[in-house]
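Hello support,

Our group uses your service weekly, and this is the first time we've seen a run hang past the timeout. The protein is glucan endo-1,3-beta-D-glucosidase. I'm not sure whether the cause is the sequence or the server load. Input pasted verbatim:
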Amino acid sequence: MAGPSMPQPLLVALLLLGFLLLIHVPYAAPQSFIGINYGDIADNLPPPASTARLLKSTTIGKVRLYRTDPAVVAAFAGTSISLLLGAANADIPSFASSPSAAAAWVAAHLPSSSSPAVNGISVGNEVLYSGDAALISQLVPALQNIYDALPANSGIKVSTVNAMDVLASSDPPSSGAFKPELSAALDPLLAFLSKTGSPFLVNPYPYFAYQDDPRPDTLAFCLFQPNAGRPDAGSGLTYTSMFDAQVDAVRAALDAKGYKDVEVVVAETGWPHSGGADEAGASVENARAFVSNLVSHLRSMVGTPRMPGKSVDTYLFAVYDEDLKPGKASEKSFGLFQTTLTETYPTGLMRNGTAGLAPAPAPTVRPASPPPAIPQVGHSSITLPLALVCFRSFL
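Update from on-call engineer: The timeout came from a worker crash unrelated to the input. Re-ran successfully.
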């Protein structure tokens, strides 16, 4: 005999309560498709161990390092956070000419144990945009020698980070195409990535597209806020965010080259929380909207219009502000966290639902001049060209 049924209004209320709890309870596990860039051009940063502890309290699953400092690598042991190690542009000539130099770098920088895990090595930053013909010609040989020096079956991917400026066309996204003049360098690079199963790393920044066209409807499109959408007549798809449009333009360019097997990974993207009077949109409100909405977008697993059903691996920029960075005020102001180990603004990344950790140990004292490092944010040198390839007419 069946028992008494639950009154329908009570059932509806319980279901609604369960749904609200589901969407508001902080995520408890790290998510492999959400990463963050850990730059160090600053003189006030907490010790690496404190930063590792901070990031362990978030759902961030990956960290990209620009300089592979052994102390920083060691700090992430036991955190379940994997690392994308970085080698500088200045290392490329020696890697390219000497397999032993590449092997020595791998031996010195790859952790001797399985923790922390290393998911990849990025050799150089925006080399194809550098204009240095000699360096560009040495890039793929350097990648190959680093790859050959890795332990057998390590699963570590080897790639290089590219600026959006490698695209000649991105308006609309389905027309995405690489610059023909880069073919001599790009073709062997893409062949290497395909052969080794490594991703194409790229730095899309909707913020700089907005800088080029600071209209309210452009801002909503860049911040994942409600907007009318922008149709792509070439594909029949409609875009509601600049991020998806930029990523799909890169995907279209790879497809046009015949490299549908090469994955797109976002090596950097972010939004400054402050800037100069001439830097439209650089505010805490907009940074919070971009980062929190991007995190929600990635967690939805909806993907992009061209690549539905899977979130693109994305490294947010950046852990902290970097007070020694040159350039405009915004260049120093991309930090998601303060050096006190608290959030600059709510990001939705904290596992415990709080605003961070506290108190922080005394900051590490660094020299007044920054140490040699890979140029960290391509946006500082490609603001105008990036904006020009970020759908000027698409806007």
